[in-house]
Amino acid sequence: MGARNHKGESDVTVKFALLASAAMLLPAVPAAAQDAPPPTSAAAIDQAAPAEPVPADGSDIVVLGFGQSRQVQTVAAADMERLTPGTSPLKAVAKLPGVNFQSADAFGAYEWSTRISLRGFNQNQLGFTLDGVPLGDMSYGNVNGLHISRAAISENLASTTVAQGAGALGTASTSNLGGTLQFVSRKPADAADLVASGTYGSNDTVRAFVRADSGDLGGGLKGYVSYAYLTTDKWKGDGSQRQHQASVRLMEDLGEHGSITGFVNFSDRRENDYQDLSLDILSRRGYFADNITNDYATALQIGRVYQNLAARSAYATANNGSTVGFVAPWAGAGYSYPTGFGTVDDAYYDAAGLRRDWLGGVTFDMHLTPALSLVSTSYYHKNKGQGSWITPYSPTPAGAADGNGGTLPAASTSVAGLASPLGFRTTEYAIDRAGNLTHVALETGINRFELGGWYETNSFDQARRFYGMGSGTTPNRDARDFQSNPYFTQWDGKYDTETLQYYVSDTLSLGQLTLNGGWKGMRVRNRANLRTGSLVAGSIEARDWFLPQVGAVYSLGQAELFASYTENMRAFVSSATTGPFATTQVGFNAIRNTLKPETSRTVEGGVRLRAGGLQLSAAAYYIDFSNRLLTFANGSGIQGNPPTLNNAGDVESYGAEVSAFYRIVGPLTAFASYSYNRATYQDDVKNAAGTVLVATAGKTVVDTPEHMAKGELVYDDSRFFARAGADYMSKRYFNYLNDRSVGGRLVVDASLGYRFGEGFGPFRGIAIEGSVTNLTNKRYISTIGTNGYTASGDNQTFLTAAPRQWFVTLRRGF
Prior knowledge:
By secondary structure, the chain is mainly beta. 9% of the residues lie in helices and 47% in strands. Belongs to the TonB-dependent receptor family.
């Protein structure tokens, strides 16, 4: 690790003392209003039939979807607060059955590494919403939304609801083939309060959070403003990850007439990346192999050697194998990589991800009559993003801007007149999207009828640019800065998406039996306007006006039976790096009239039981997934080669899930889940002539563990509190022919804390907590697929997990 990860003991003590002082100086305002979130309205959860609201007394921190015809679980804020502050809410739901969540950092917030899948459906085949507002598919490439770690401060979330098989009809998503995650924000408190926390831990991690609630200002007007800051050094290599977040929420409570809520959320996240690894690199360079951000001289030498080797190979090919007369572009650099490096891809100098987001909106939740209600949310999202790689594949020409107002001269050792063997490559993003979701509900006796719609326009700008790097002793550009003055634009396009979706649903309560059904329809138009380069210009559309969903719940007193059938479609995305536009114009023209959107049909059923302190849920499912589009990676990710898109036909998935929550005694609870999933490709990948390109039939879907088991014990007597959790996952394949895989692993986390109550003077209302992630210091591969998947063989497409890390937190008001 870099030198800045090895602070002296005195420095650690001073930082922790400052955090402790800040927490204890907060005024002792009563915090009762923060003990549990108020129940959330149906509309706020997903604009349709919601999961059962989290109990207002906070007695159950996990609700197993009672009353729902689908497999649904809700995790309350009280459970999320047991994790280290700043932890992604995705990590909080990782213990639920069927949920495969991976990240290379302790917080689960490092976006390049964050992956979540449900029942074999990967992240961009799921739906995500925040208070009903669509977050897109939360992909790293920032195409049609933003990640939840930027959309909301984790302490401001009241609940997270997971529907493993299919989201509700009104969910604002065009990608939810295999389930949804719906995040709900906490409402402003009725009483004024000040809530804060400070965290210090491994790798010089500092996390601070503060929220000020106004309380009722009169006439039902109340709100809060909050701010969060995170900075941490990488756990290996050199570099840091930093985020600023701010949130403002204002609510006018109209009592029986409803409410009006406005919000603005801001995030600025900048993170140095970890090096993507392959099994080969891992075996040669070890678990802690990373980018060489603290060694610019070595990065320059690797680039020189690579370009000498590439130029010599090209010369030999053009001269029947002869190298007579060849002159290397970098004199004196030779043809051997520095000791410890076997290929040009073993280590790059640096890489980073930058994201700046504004997300705002207003919701009118109106009770027009005792039977008729209307909810309408209008929202706007603006994003600026940049993904950076300092690459040896694109040397900088002499005369390129140096980023500091000057130009770069030719390097003294460059025969070809180059300024540097390295270039600064970016993928640049700009999202400008706005939309509205509106639904009405009519309740008449035993019947509830709903009708709703969603409209969004998204203008997405994306470009691939290169900026000049020099050959000096220190780099002239920082990967965590937005860049200007490129020397080359490889491609630049404007990608427009227009989304129109509607739904109709009806719920009929017949005593013990509840029936629900309806359908949704959507049309998504995608257009690519290429301004520079040789990628795709054109348009494509996905449309289906009838996607039905039916379900039933039969109550047996303390138990209930449920079943549902759902059809869904995933629309195409408008991007130069994913979807049908991420190819050549010739390739797009060949597929545009025959390419079909992915669709799924899901059947699931099960039983739930609630008796005393026990909640139990068991479900089985079958999924028919059609027109599965497989993206084949071409070369290492840093090269930026367009991927190949192929229709792999059908995927069949079936499995079972069991989860249980049990209150053993008053303060002691246990939660456990197990899931089995078998997901296989049913067809080979073929070309237009019917020739088999990749024999995928019968192969297991990539990144799909067959077995997952999770469990945790929680003790909380209002003074002492503790948590221990374990997460097991079986092996996962990372190529389509299943000849390479990563092994299973068992990971354990734990935390312990104490709340100071009456009799502790100025400490009253303060809590101190210590937490440890990866308690057994397990070394394992966490994320796979960072650079896509290949047909067979090894691939530089995974990241190793963070080792054991510790954190200490002081809280007030939680």
